[in-house]
Structures are given as structure tokens and as C-alpha cells.
Write the C-alpha cells for this entry.
Amino acid sequence: MSPLIRGKTAIVTGAGSGINLEFPRLLLNGGANVVFADLSLRPEAQEVVNAHQSGSSRAIFQQTDVTDWLQLSRLFDIAHQHFGSVDIVCPGAGVYEPPFSNFWHPPGARGPSKDDPSGGGYALLDINLTHPIRMTQLAISYFLSETVSPPTSRGTPRSIVHISSIAGQTTPLAAPMYNASKHAINGFVRSLAPLEAKLGIRVVAVAPGVVKTPLWTDHAEKLKAVGSEDGWVSAEDVATVMMALVERDEVGDVIGENAEGGEKIVIRGGSILEVSKGRVRDVQAFNDPGPGDRVGNKASNMWKLEEEVWSALDMKGWGAL
């Protein structure tokens, strides 16, 4: 168990699968309690929850629609009732340009979009951007409330870990709203950097490359963008870096067996750490070279998805109601 994690409590949205399952798994192994928040749990996530119904680290599942602000607020009440505190928040739930809310499938036009043309919003942005922003507001409010013991300070810090992406720097044509949401998360996280020095609230993010999770593997229409020679980033590696973001003040730029031999990256409020296959990089706010060609940062067949975009735009009346 980790002495810095043991006895802490985390809320993780999107915890039913992928990165947001592996992070709670490590938290539980470190002695923390975790509220799993998602619409449902995949079998592997349910197994983790079932295995931690008693003992020093416990897990509970709360069915949650992250677009419903009342349900987000309720997560803090539930965590406090069950475990007495909330110390770590990860608003991790996200979608990758799904057919039901996709820039290239406009609301009201012929196609699979479920966004209401008179509704004034996109589900993708509600999930990927508005939900993390609202969860951060709720977390800061909770961390600074009188119910928190010990009070949040630099001596007793609390953390908010966001999930960005290399798409927070890159701009593939096939996923413009997803790209926009991750660019926005980067700016949002950097804006809150001063909270750590003043209040003891660390707001940080990971920015993974192409991660082998159901977000890709369960969607053949997206999976075809990944070439046979492209390497995957593992969800476990991303979760390992997320643990470093809440536990430590530095992390090596190598993950795995050779981690001790890597260069050290300083972690502070506003840090955004790119995670490629077995490697970590500190993403700078200015003059950053970008993700580059590290293994795990490429989907070499993205052109296939872009060809579909051009084909759609060739159709008469694209986007017409």
C-alpha cells in the first residue's frame, strides 16, 4: 500500500472501463476507497468492485449520467457518507467523436446524430468538457468546505486529475469536436495551476496517445484508423502516471522496468503529462514540439476516416435540416 494514498477517497467518472478502470484499480491497491461512477460497469470493472466490498480499501458503484449536474453533485454526498471524505477526483468519462454526437453528422440532418437541432448543445462537449469543468467546480467547493477534515492545505493537499489527449495538440480532420474538447481541457487545467501553491489543490492532466481501450477496440469504425504497425499505449501505463500525479512531485520519463534510469519530470499544479508507449513527456504551454512520432502516438490510417469526411461533404445537401 502507498502511505500517500492509504485511507484516501477518490471519485472517478467513466470508471466502467479503460483508463478510468485501471486508475481506480491502482488506487484500491494503494489502500484508497473509490466511488466508481458510470452508466454501467463492464464485467472486469464489476469484478474489481465486488472484490473490494470490505477491508482497508473499498469500492462502490454509483450509476451516473455525467451530463446531469445533480448526479455529479450527488457523488460527493455519497462518497462522504460512505467514506467520510473526498481527496481525489478524476472526471474521466469521455467519448471519441461518436456517431450520436459528431461534427460530421450535424443535428437534424440525415444521419445518426441524436443531438437536438433546437437544443443548443452537443452531447460530446457535455461529456468531454462541461462535465469535467462542473466536476472541478464541485471538487473545489467540497475541498474548501468546513465538512472536510483535515482542511485542505499545502500540508494536506487534494487532487483533481483530468484526462486530456495528444489530440489536445494535434488536429485530425476526422475528430474536430473531440480535438476542441481536449485543447480546452489543456487550457482549463493550466488556468487552475495557481490553486496548488495557494490552497493545496493540485489540478493536473494526462495526455495519452492511442490507448488500447474499448473506446477504440469496441468500435470498428474507429479501429480502422490504427495501422498494424502502430503501437498502442496501455491503460495501465496511463494509470501509473495518474498515480504519480496525485502521489509525487516528480516522475521519470520512462515507464516500466527501466523507470529509475529515466530523466525526472517535475510535477506541479497545471502539469500535463503526455503518455506514449512506455514514455512520459511534460507538455509545455509555449513552444512545445508536439507529440512527435513516439510509439503509441500515431494512428497511421487516420486518412481512412478523413476520406469518409470528404465523401460525406461531396453529398448534396450536407448538413441541411
